[in-house]
Design brief:
The chain folds into 2 domains: 10-155, no CATH class; 162-238, Zinc/RING finger domain, C3HC4 (zinc finger) (Herpes Virus-1). The protein has 7 helices and 10 strands. It has helices at residues 82-86, 89-99, 111-130, 161-165, 171-177, 183-186, 230-237, and strands spanning 3-18, 37-56, 59-69, 73-81, 140-158, 179-181, 208-211, 214-217, 219-221, 227-229. Helix 2 crosses helix 3 (111-130). Residues 196-247 form the RING-type domain.
Length: 255
């Protein structure tokens, strides 16, 4: 029986910082007001990619099945004095780290990346102001910080280990691959363990029977050379296709 396992993880984040969009009728200001504060509005957008991983005859294939994007989700708003940005990225990084303490060492939610993007955007706005190209009017500059999170959902088919062991051996393999043997053919050393690992009884117990005047050996040897009582190993192979000692794999009806 196949089971579906779903694994979800955020694998990457990109940052976009947008200054306010000017109105078409708003002309550039010859003497723009000095910015005193910056209003950082954090929003998140999640782009989700769904992959299906399937295995057939030991070949694994990965298929992109669906991709979708969420609406912008407001996260938090922070208003900070412009001096924090003017003092360089270290001051802004310390501020953001204090506001997002859980993400200081996160490899995906990278505060350094967010800091660099905000500083770069502020540098562009300052340059526009110096060239009298800025259309922003006001002492509080609103910046929208969009965190675009790339989420990967992997769905895979997997057969649990216990189910794989519970697949029975084919009847043909039981009849053709098991060999009748004598105890003395298998144990030359008196110190060797002579017990059936299935029933835990001595391997010489019930080792043969007489039928129609013929002695029939009741010990069966698997291709891996491990020996068991006939009744024990045949019962075992009705619910498994592995040797109970070494996990040698016997053929199944589906193999």
């Amino acid at each position: 029986m196949d089971y579906l396992f779903r694994h979800r993880s955020i694998v990457r984040m990109t940052v976009e910082v947008q200054p306010p969009t000017p109105k078409p009728e708003q002309p550039p200001q010859t003497q723009p007001d000095p910015v005193e504060e910056i209003r950082l509005k954090f929003v998140a957008v999640v782009e989700c990619s769904h992959f299906l991983v399937s295995t057939n005859n030991n070949f694994r294939t990965t298929t992109l099945t669906r991709r979708h994007e969420s609406e912008k989700v407001p996260l938090v708003v922070h208003q900070i004095p412009i001096q924090i940005l003017d003092h360089g990225p270290q001051s802004l990084h310390q501020f953001l780290s204090s506001k997002f303490p859980a993400y200081q060492n996160d490899t995906v939610f990278n505060i350094h990346t967010i800091t660099d993007k905000i500083i770069a955007t502020w540098a562009e706005i300052k340059q526009q102001q110096e060239q009298n190209l800025s259309v922003f009017v006001g002492k509080v500059l609103p910046l929208t910080v969009t965190l675009r999170l790339w989420n990967v959902v992997v769905t895979r088919h997997e057969t649990p280990m216990e189910d794989r062991f519970m697949i029975p051996t084919s009847d043909f393999a039981v009849e053709e691959m098991l060999k009748r043997v004598k105890v003395e053919q298998q144990f030359d050393d008196d110190d060797q363990i002579r017990s059936c690992v299935i029933c835990l009884e001595d391997i010489s117990v019930n080792m043969e029977k007489e039928e129609n005047g013929e002695v029939i050996l009741l010990l069966l040897q698997m291709p891996c050379l491990h020996v068991f009582h006939e009744e024990c190993i045949k019962k075992w192979l009705k619910s498994s296709h592995y040797c109970p000692i070494c996990r040698f794999q016997m053929p199944t009806d589906s193999s």
